[in-house]
């Protein structure tokens, strides 16, 4: 089963903006895909559709085998809770709440008990290299560390798909590379990742690149090209 | 992936989908509270200020109810200790409009009524009591000089605070016992002092304690029946008869009194029950001062508007949080519940603080007035109920707004 399968997807916003004009995209399990394109080309729109935060105007969106059109808002919520993790450009961490609880609260809607949530959160934070920062609050963390907390929150529940919209957009190169390092580790251990960026270097780092321009996919390495390959991050940082 | 593969997988998926039902996990009660509380904890100042509005309203209402209940309780206890079995008889008006007089035999006749256990009388004299002869006659200070039968103290269930009650000898001599108020107004310090009544010195032999059922005695200088006749030109007609009977026979005695006291002119006799005034006061104290209650209700309403306002602002400010929660898998219902619970907790906080403050105010006021402090449990549960109602009404609109927010729009708000 494919993790993502878009068929003839279009998205028109009220006011007449056609953000997507017929997109076909398949992402297979274990792929690390970079979605690149200039500003306004429709990358975030595409990610919102994949993340089931929004519905297409026409076309078919299937995520982990579910046809989004057939699901109610409640069912979509459950789909997001169990199968999709999000990382946003601006972290979206709760102030005044420890890193551990920020991550644990990300599992709240998955029907997991508090003690289990904390256990999974600790493991996820250790996985992103923040095992020593469990009790720190967001304002006591660097930008890169904050984004790693957000990544930990997104992957703590072992989702089938990790979506990241410009995760390094608010970070300098060093902090950005920390976060990308974490993402490549996750990829190596089998997580399916789609990452939006307009940074060509980062796009190069991903095994598979999908280029978006004016609502169309212009080049795509093809499904499967981004699977289980070692990320070439070392080249980017060099 | 080939086209055939894709078709196959689509086919298998369509048959799979019903089997893999997606249903959102329910949040446990403790998680619902944790989430609601976390929203409040991040904005403590605002929470305290908006809870304060509710607290003031609830405190006002609880205090108003508490204070009036305490005062009622006080009056009821007083009634209980004073008894409601005393009746008094006074002369009314003659049919020609003049003042009637009670026959000299009235007390003796009253005692003959079966259930009557004790009866006594006082009779007003035309004289005044003064500190000394230099004070003009006209300055009475509202103190009456009254003749009294020796049984009066027993009938009134009274006692002396100083000195002694009139006995067989002092009742025949120029001696007087002062009511509590009379003693205060005359500035009397010691038993044995003398006061000036009708051109002669009378020795004060005692001072009575306050008599709640006979305030007229508090403002009297009492002189023995025979002494009054001898020294004060007293005409020996009682002006007020006091009697007590068993509780059960009060009505029977009340009916018998006019005919017994004045067989010829029963219509010229007025019977009353002094405890009725206290009972009426107790009943009145129980009905709360509606103006104050109304004020409390207005404060509560303003508090509710404050909570609603806080919640609306909170929803506007927390669009990103709402978007994030939706992306984490919260359903609309869960977002709605979160804000509703937050509003409920906010107003409940105000309600609990208000109930405590109102109870403390009642306590302090009651202790200050020497009343038994009473806060009826229904007032407290009513207060909590009112707060919950206000919290949910105030929270409904903001919660719906939060739930309606589209996740993409919420997340886009930087
Ligand atoms: N909610 C919306 N309503 C109307 N138009 C929208 C909305 N969101 C996006 N658009 C429009 O759709 C187009 C694609 O937007 P999108 O956010 O997907 O671009 P993007 O590729 O993510 O750009 P950037 O790199 O700047 O984030 C833009 O022209 C944008 O103005
Ligand atoms: Mg974008």
TrEMBL record, chain A:
Q: Which residues form the signal peptide?
A: none
* PROSITE patterns listed in its UniProt record: ABC_TRANSPORTER_1, ABC_TRANSPORTER_2
Supply the alphabetized keyword list.
ATP-binding, Nucleotide-binding, Transport
One Pfam family this chain carries? ABC_tran
Q: What is this protein called?
A: ABC transporter ATP-binding protein
Query: Which residues does the UniProt record annotate as the domain ABC transporter?
Result: 4-238
Organism annotation: Streptomyces oryzae
Does the keyword ATP-binding belong to this entry?
yes
CDD domains in the record, alphabetically? Answer: ABC_MJ0796_LolCDE_FtsE
From TrEMBL, chain B:
Please give the chief subcellular localization of this protein. Answer: membrane
- Enumerate the spans annotated as MacB-like periplasmic core domain: 48-257
Question: What is the annotated localization of this protein?
Answer: Cell membrane
Signal peptide, first to last residue: none
Cite the residue spans of the region called Disordered: 1-23
Q: Does the keyword Protein biosynthesis apply?
A: no
Question: What is the membrane topology here?
Answer: Multi-pass membrane protein
Taxonomy, superkingdom: Bacteria
Recite the UniProt keywords alphabetically.
Answer: Cell membrane, Membrane, Transmembrane, Transmembrane helix
Q: Which residues cross the membrane?
A: 47-67, 291-316, 344-366, 378-397
Can you tell me which family this protein belongs to? Answer: Belongs to the ABC-4 integral membrane protein family.
For this entry, the protein name equals ABC transporter permease
Q: Which organism is it from?
A: Streptomyces oryzae
């Amino acid at each position: 089963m494919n993790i993502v399968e878009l068929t003839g997807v279009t998205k028109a916003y009220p006011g007449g903006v056609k953000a997507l004009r017929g997109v076909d995209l398949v992402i297979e399990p274990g792929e690390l895909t970079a979605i690149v394109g200039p500003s306004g080309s429709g990358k975030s729109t595409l990610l919102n559709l994949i993340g089931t935060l929004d519905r297409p105007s026409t076309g078919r969106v299937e995520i982990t085998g579910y046809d989004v059109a057939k699901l109610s808002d409640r069912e979509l919520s459950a789909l997001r809770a169990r199968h999709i993790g999000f990382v946003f450009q601006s972290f979206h961490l709760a102030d005044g709440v420890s890193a551990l609880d920020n991550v644990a609260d990300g599992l709240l809607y998955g029907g997991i008990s508090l003690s289990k949530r904390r256990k999974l959160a600790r493991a996820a934070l250790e996985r992103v290299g923040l095992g020593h920062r469990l009790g720190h609050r967001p304002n006591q963390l660097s930008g890169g560390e904050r984004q790693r907390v957000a990544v930990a929150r997104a992957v703590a529940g072992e989702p089938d798909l990790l979506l990241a919209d410009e995760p390094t957009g608010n970070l300098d190169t060093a902090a950005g590379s920390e976060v990308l390092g974490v993402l490549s580790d996750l990829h190596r251990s089998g997580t399916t990742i789609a990452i939006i960026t307009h940074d060509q270097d980062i796009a190069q780092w991903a095994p598979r690149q999908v280029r978006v321009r004016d609502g169309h996919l212009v080049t795509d390495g093809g499904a499967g090209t981004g699977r289980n390959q070692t990320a070439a991050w070392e080249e980017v940082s060099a | 992936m080939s086209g055939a593969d894709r078709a196959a997988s689509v086919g298998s998926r369509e048959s799979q989908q019903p089997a893999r039902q997606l249903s959102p996990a329910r949040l446990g009660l403790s998680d619902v509270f944790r989430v609601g509380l976390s929203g409040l904890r991040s904005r403590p100042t605002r929470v305290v200020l908006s809870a304060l509005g509710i607290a003031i309203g609830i405190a006002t209402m609880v205090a108003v109810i508490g204070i009036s209940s305490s005062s009622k309780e006080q009056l009821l206890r007083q009634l209980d200790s004073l008894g409601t079995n005393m009746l008094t008889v006074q002369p009314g008006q003659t049919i020609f409009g003049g003042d009637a007089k009670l026959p000299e035999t009235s007390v003796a006749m009253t005692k003959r009524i079966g259930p009557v256990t004790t009866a006594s009388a006082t009779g007003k004299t035309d004289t005044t009591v003064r500190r000394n002869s230099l004070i003009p006659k006209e300055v009475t200070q509202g103190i009456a000089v009254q003749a009294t039968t020796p049984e009066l103290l027993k009938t009134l269930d009274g006692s002396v605070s100083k000195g002694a009650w009139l006995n067989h000898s002092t009742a025949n001599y120029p001696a007087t016992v002062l009511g509590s108020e009379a003693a205060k107004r005359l500035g009397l310090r010691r038993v044995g002092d003398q006061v000036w009544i009708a051109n002669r010195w009378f020795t004060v032999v005692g001072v009575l304690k306050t008599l709640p059922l006979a305030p007229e005695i508090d403002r009297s200088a009492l002189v023995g029946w025979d002494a009054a006749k001898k020294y004060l030109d007293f005409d020996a007609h009682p002006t007020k008869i006091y009697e007590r009977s068993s509780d059960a026979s009060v009505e029977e005695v009340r009916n018998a009194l006019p005919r017994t006291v004045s067989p010829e002119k029963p219509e010229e006799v007025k019977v009353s029950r002094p405890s009725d005034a206290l009972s009426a006061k107790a009943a009145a104290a129980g009905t709360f001062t509606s103006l104050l209650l109304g004020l409390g209700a207005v404060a509560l309403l303003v508090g509710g508007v404050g909570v609603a306002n806080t919640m609306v602002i909170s929803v506007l400010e927390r669009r990103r949080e709402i978007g994030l929660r939706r992306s984490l898998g919260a359903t609309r219902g869960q977002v709605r519940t979160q804000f509703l619970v937050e509003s409920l907790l906010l107003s409940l906080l105000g309600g609990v603080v208000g109930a405590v403050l109102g109870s403390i105010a009642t306590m302090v006021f009651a202790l200050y007035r020497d009343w038994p402090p009473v806060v009826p449990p229904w007032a407290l549960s009513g207060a909590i109920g009112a707060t919950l109602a206000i919290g949910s009404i105030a929270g409904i609109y903001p919660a719906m707004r939060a739930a309606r927010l589209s996740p993409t729009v919420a997340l886009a708000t930087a």
